[in-house]
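A quick aside before the break. I want you to see a complete sequence-to-structure record at least once, exactly as it would be stored in a machine-readable document. Don't worry about memorizing anything.
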Amino acid sequence: MDEIRQQLHNEKIMAEMKALENDANSILNETDSAIQAASSTGSDETDDVLRATKSNSAG
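That is the input. The structure line, written in tokens, reads:
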């Protein structure tokens, strides 16, 4: 019985990890899209946004 509980616990953790991975990938995709959209405008404001984004992702 303990073995079954442990297996269910492991499966639940794996499902939670997969959900977190999907969330992280979505955030990365949104960030990439925002950077691409911002870089296509070529304004000074865009440069500020890109610098801030790069410094935030580096830290």
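Two observations worth writing down. The first helix runs from residue 2 to 41. The CA atoms of residues 7 and 45 lie 52 Å apart. We'll return to this after the break.
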